[in-house]
Amino acid sequence: xxxxRELAEKINNEVHKVVIGLDETLKFVLTGxxxxxxxxxxxxxxxxxxxxxxxxxxxxxxxxxxxxxTPDLLSSDILGTxxxxxxxxxxxxxxxxxxxxxxxxxxxxxxIPRTQSALLEAMAEGQVTIEGTTHPLEKPFFVIATQNPIxxxxxxxxxxxxxxxxxxxxxxxxxxxxxxxxxxxxxxxxVPIEQIKPVVSPQDIILAQNTINQVTITEDLETYIIQIIRxxxxxxxxxxxxxxRGLIFLTKASKAFAAIHGRDFVIPDDVKAPxxxxxxxxxxxxxxxxxxKRSELDVLDEILRNIPAPxxxxxxxxxxxx
Length: 322
Known about the structure:
It holds the Pfam family AAA_3. The protein folds into two domains: about 20-190, P-loop containing nucleotide triphosphate hydrolases (Rossmann fold, 3-Layer(aba) Sandwich); about 215-305, Helicase, Ruva Protein, domain 3 (Orthogonal Bundle), CATH 1.10.8.80.
């Protein structure tokens, strides 16, 4: 998986020309991209979500569009519509902003449920059907949706079934004091996003996405992942456990995480690292536990502590088939 590791390093180095810190977040965003999944960023305004998405798109040479969700945003506003051309006498389809490779959907919880559903259908199917005609979306197609975790007035929170469509839920958080000083000194003088140049191609990303399936995983690690998923359904503090989609996504994320680190096999740490990102929005803690200030992340940490990770010998861990 040297190719994928080098690809990730090129994107990482280019993006960090304009993105300060966020090393772990960028790694997980790239993991989601390589899994052909989509990412939900739940964070406050002004922490760099748009810059991060634009920088990744620019480093890959992909088209980028941004949708600002509002309560009056209609599904046709993002999908496009068919219009009548009086000169030619024909109907032509005018594509909406959804027809891009990298799409930032800002404040998705401000869009009405019908618009949310149209977007999430496109994310799941990789195509949209309008007036009986199917329009495929260009690959790679990657969506980063954002929502404000503390502002609820005038919002339409995504239901669990739609949250389950996102591969990961991430949070950028505030930068450190040192990072903020660097941001202050550097980014008040010029707009550096123009510095980002393509260092890999969309075809490289598609090849990497197809290569992820070649990463091997042992039966012991498969059992480990299944135990984690089933524990979310059996835990006394959880009212809604992870679905089989969560099982599939956690396995894919583990393989992509291993590939980013240059391995063609999964180790236990590759499974542990994305657990909270892949499962936190797929489970729901009971209100009684929430009153005790117990969150989904707390319960997932407890589950990981209680389930012993498999210990493999060197030959088995490296996938030795001799």
